[in-house]
């Protein structure tokens, strides 16, 4: 899952980025509303964590622009503005959730997981494909009850595939989900992750199928 974190406090942004990356998220950092607006012109995100009190374009203006442009990316506001009037106003503008500062990182992650589940239309926190299971609460993969050991990028690729089992995900979409503006993932690197994942999924019944010219699909193949 690829997130855009829009927060002008660089220490807080760095701390949140580190913790979210440890949980398997790919995080892009923007420190101003203008910077976030530029990122959104060329990048796609699974969710946005948005502070309101930003220099230049504030968070509320950025949220309004997003929704006016029919961009439905889930937005979780993280703000020191904790008055009920502020919360209601921003939810009415199109924010999906609101978390007042200071907050507990576990609550932030729980709200983020809930938001991502709602956006995918899946109420059940556990997604399955054969013996392969992905618990969206713990963000762990398991096979036949045993935790599957994955690198962060292997985890990110498999998570994107298992969220849409039986559907094709293009190579570009997979590469983009791993890339940031500072670090791009090449097609060759993506193929290496796919090869490694196929080996780790051999006993699960879940297979990653290559559809030439289209991309990859995670599907269940019975013995």
From TrEMBL:
Q: Output one GO MF annotation.
A: phosphorelay response regulator activity
Q: Which residues fall under the DNA-binding region feature?
A: 124-220
4-aspartylphosphate, modified sites: 51
| Transmembrane portions of the chain | none
Biological process per Gene Ontology, one example term: regulation of DNA-templated transcription
OmpR/PhoB-type domain: from which residue to which, for each copy?
Answer: 124-220
This chain's protein is named: Two-component system, OmpR family, response regulator TctD
Organism name: Propionivibrio dicarboxylicus
């Amino acid at each position: 899952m690829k997130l855009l974190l829009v927060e002008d406090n660089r220490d807080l942004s760095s701390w949140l980025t580190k913790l979210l990356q440890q949980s398997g998220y790919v995080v892009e950092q923007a420190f101003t509303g203008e910077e976030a607006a530029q990122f959104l012109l060329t990048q796609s995100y699974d969710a946005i964590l948005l502070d309101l009190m930003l220099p230049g374009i504030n968070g509320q203006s950025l949220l309004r622009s997003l929704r006016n442009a029919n961009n439905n990316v889930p937005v979780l506001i993280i703000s020191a503005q904790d008055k009920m009037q502020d919360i209601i106003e921003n939810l009415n503008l199109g924010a999906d959730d609101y978390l007042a500062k200071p907050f507990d990182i576990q609550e932030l992650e729980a709200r983020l997981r809930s938001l991502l589940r709602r956006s995918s239309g899946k109420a059940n926190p556990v997604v399955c494909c054969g013996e392969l299971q992905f618990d969206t609460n713990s963000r762990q993969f398991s096979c036949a009850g045993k935790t599957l050991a994955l690198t962060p990028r292997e985890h990110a690729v498999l998570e994107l595939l298992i969220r849409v089992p039986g559907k094709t995900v293009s190579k570009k979409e997979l590469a983009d989900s791993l890339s940031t503006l500072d670090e791009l993932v090449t097609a060759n690197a993506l193929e290496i992750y796919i090869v490694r994942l196929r080996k780790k999924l051999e006993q699960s019944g879940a297979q990653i199928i290559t559809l030439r010219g289209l991309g990859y699909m995670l599907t269940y193949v019975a013995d």
